[in-house]
Amino acid sequence: FSTMRKGFDKINDHRTGNTEITLTDALMSGFAVFSLKDQSLLAFDERRHKAPLNLKTIYGMGKIPCDTSMRTILDGVDPNDLRPLFKDAFRQLQRGKALEKMVYMDGCYLLNLDGTGYFSSHVRHNPSCMEKVRRSTGEVTYYLQMLGAAIVHPDYKEVIPLCPEMIMRQDGDNKNDCERNAAKRFLAHLRREHPHLPLIVNEDALSSNAPHIHDLEEHGVHYILGVKPKGHKFLFQHIDMASETGEAEKFVIVDKENPDIKHCFRIMNDAPLNESNQDVRVNFIDYKEENTATGKIKRFSWVTDFEISHENAMKIMRAGRARWKIENETFNTLKNQGYNFGHNYGLGKKNLSVVFVLLMMLAFLVDQIQQFCCPLFNALWKDGRTKRALWEKIRYWFQGFIYESMEHMYRSILGWVTIDLRE
């Protein structure tokens, strides 16, 4: 929380003249909404009246804005000013050596990218909203999306989100934005903020195209990208022909923990991506998981810039299958475990919805770091069993007692320290 507040302090206030509430307090209040998992700004406003002391001691606020003032102040914040806070939190993970556990392959971290929507309305909109028109009725849907990014590891539940890239109309642009353009912007930001971070970008089959692969290569990142027979017919036909001539190699690995499961691979290095981009050479891995006891079969295919061998095929396969973590461990967590991702906290006339999304992602990042590193947090989570029960317990104790810090509250809930009752 101290890191977040210091980061907010560095942002220049866009307002002129005397201001009763500082920009830092407004940003910290928005952060606290998502940190405490309040379902609405009105719920936070009620907390402002009933438990202001903990907001001041735990979150370091001075004067706490009401919900209307918060929206008005945050609407004018430049979202780019919040980007450094993701790096600030990330740097603490690096300095504490905690991030080293997330290294997956060849000294690299596995970075999942995927797009998701967070706002949709037939009525409300602002200049940043994209538009989708239904041909049959002419009805217009206004919507906003983001390209999410998170460092993951197949062996860990935790994900480390990086600053997302918004998919929306850019300033002065009358055309809809798209995930591909957002990915280009994301990679440029990524390499400016983390120039030496070794990464393997892991994405779905929509990303397996020549322009995107060129972008990945230009920014010096490895990749494991999904491919499908329908969308990559030429590639699969090429592999099928190579299988007949023996150029594509097949082998089976029996699972060490469950002998009923067979990992069946077909691999080929230096294959053409598609007919129109045969100069773009990729390494192909086709995988089938066969359960001889149940008869169930699962199939996946990827292209990568790693040379594939018997020794690393399982490693690449596990990385490719970990792509679901951006959906389940990130987006589904944000939507279904208290963060209320998708709830319209405020669209605003300028940047309000984007600022709220970034503050939500910062709160999620802090929570993931606590889950990854903090024994107190994990003891409390174990005691509550579910995340929803954990957040409910935290809100209850936050409302009922006075604390010096979040650590003090955690210890109090666990019965490890005494607490001061409210008058």
Please describe what this structure looks like.
- The protein has 423 residues and is of the alpha+beta class.
- Helices cover 41% and strands 21% of the residues.
- The protein contains 15 helices and 14 strands.
- The strands form two sheets. Strands 1, 2, 3, 4, 5, 6, 7, 8, 9, 10, 11 and 12 form a twelve-stranded mixed sheet that branches. The chain has a two-stranded antiparallel ribbon with strand order 13-14.
- Helix 8 (210-218) links the parallel strand 7 and strand 8 (222-226).
- The radius of gyration is 24 Å and the shape is globular.
Strand content: 15-25%
Distance between the termini: 27 Å
List the total number of helices: 15
**Radius of gyration from the CA trace?**
24 Å
Count of DSSP E strands?
14
Shape: globular
Oligomer designation: single chain
Mean pLDDT: 93
SS class: alpha+beta
Describe the structure concisely for a colleague.
By secondary structure, the protein is an alpha+beta fold. The protein is 41% helix and 21% strand.
Key attributes of the depicted protein:
single chain; 423 residues; alpha+beta; two-stranded antiparallel ribbon; 15 helices; 41% helix; globular
